[in-house]
Amino acid sequence: MSESDTADEVIVIRYRCCTCNGTGVDSLGDTCADCFGTGMDNLGA
Prior knowledge:
The protein is low in regular secondary structure. The chain has one domain (about 10-45). The protein is built from no helices and two strands. The protein starts with 14 loop residues before the first strand and ends with a strand.
């Protein structure tokens, strides 16, 4: 397999959470339930 072969390459794309805007804290001041406090939405929702 050559270096240019990307068939086995795994690409992880992280998005800022739409609910807490990447802060990890929701509007009530608690840990965001959608990103579990990480600020990053990895679910692609």
